[in-house]
Amino acid sequence: MSTSREGDAQIEWLRNRAVQVLGRMDEYREVLRLVEAGLGDEEIMAQTGVEHRDVLSVRQDVEQGECLWPETPYEFGLRRLVGEISTEEMMERLRAWPYEFGVVHDDWYDSKSWDDVVRLVMLKAISEDEYDELQQIARQSPDYPHD
Fold first, then answer.
1. Which of 60, 138, 52, 128 is nearest to 97 (CA)?
2. How far apart are CA 90 and CA 18, in angstroms?
3. d(Cα 13, Cα 93) in Å, to the nearest integer?
4. Residue 121 and residue 118: Cα distance in Å, rounded?
């Protein structure tokens, strides 16, 4: 059984981790916005403080039509955890999310958006009640993996 102190330390660790993850997402999206606006590499580096290799990486993603940081249910949970969005906003977005469900292949698992919700509850970034509500919604999907 974990103590309150251990639980507090886990939440603090998760908050710190969330700040790092969200910082990378936001940085990437800002560089992406500036690349799409037509700014040159030097100008982007000056405005954002990112290294040239990172700007080149984003530029390459744009040229290949890739988006490495789309919004996800996991992101919404982290943003609520660090206080960037309210519980109401997080739940509104999670309730409306078009969930996809992971698939087990021969020797690997292809995770999908519902796995983000499972991850959030396992990390205690969302409550059991929030998870239960979202699971009731997810179960209405014809693709939900019924036991």
1. 138
2. 15
3. 25
4. 5
Ramachandran assignment for 65, one of left (phi > 0), alpha (psi -120 to 50 degrees), beta (any other): left
Q: Which residues pair with 109 in a beta bridge?
A: 104
d(Cα 40, Cα 30) in Å, to the nearest integer?
14
- Predicted structure pTM score: 0.84
Answer left, alpha or beta for residue 49, where phi above 0 means left and psi between -120 and 50 means alpha.
left
Q: Please, is 15 exposed, middle or buried when counting C-beta atoms within 10 Å of its C-beta (0-12, 13-18, 19+)? A: middle
For 101-115, what is each residue's pLDDT tens digit?
998 899 999 999 999
Given this model, what pLDDT does residue 3 score?
63
Q: What's the full length of the chain, in residues? A: 147
- In this structure, the number of other CB atoms found within 10 A of the CB of residue 61 comes to 17
> Domain extents for the chain?
3-64, 73-139
Alpha-helical segments (H) within the chain: 4-36, 41-48, 52-63, 73-81, 87-96, 113-122, 128-138
pLDDT at 147: 60
